[in-house]
Amino acid sequence: MGKKNSKNLSIIDRELKIEGSISSKGTLIIKGQVTGTIEGDVVIIAPDGRVNATATKVSSITIGGNFQGDLTASRELIVLSTGICSGKVSCKDLIVENGGILNAEVSCKISQPLSPKKNLPSFGSSELNKDKQE
Q1: Annotated domain spans of the chain
Q2: pTM (two decimals)
Q3: CA distance 124 to 103
Q4: What is d(CA 45, CA 27) in angstroms, rounded to the nearest whole number?
Q5: pLDDT at 30 over 80
Q6: Residue 82: left (phi > 0), alpha (psi -120 to 50), or beta?
Q7: pLDDT tens-digit readout, 52-103
Q8: Residue 38 belongs to what H/E stretch?
Q9: DSSP per residue over 48-96, as a string?
């Protein structure tokens, strides 16, 4: 028999409460309560899920429940319409659905630095104020 191409899936169910450190490969779905640190690939906090994390480092996180703490997402942070995210957040891409709550210090990283357009005057420059003086 050949190898099956399967990805890891871990679930913290509704009645489960975890305190401590979690390290996960693949997808981690949180329906219960987690207090501590999380490190992994893809994390999904379901509407019933509650996370209070001192440090969370993931590639992608989707929040449908409640997240509070420090979060670093190397790819994306998605806050669903049922989600609440508070604390300190660093991510590459940020998506907040209508109704989702993001009450955090946010830092979005970009892969390439933006270069200013050369032909446009900068805000507050003398070229913009010249019309007002005439």
Answers
A1: 9-111
A2: 0.77
A3: 31
A4: 11
A5: yes
A6: alpha
A7: 999 999 999 999 999 999 999 999 999 999 999 999 999 999 999 999 999 9
A8: strand 33-45
A9: T-EEEEEEEEEEEEEESSEEEEEEEEEEEEEE-TT-EEEEEEEEEEEEE
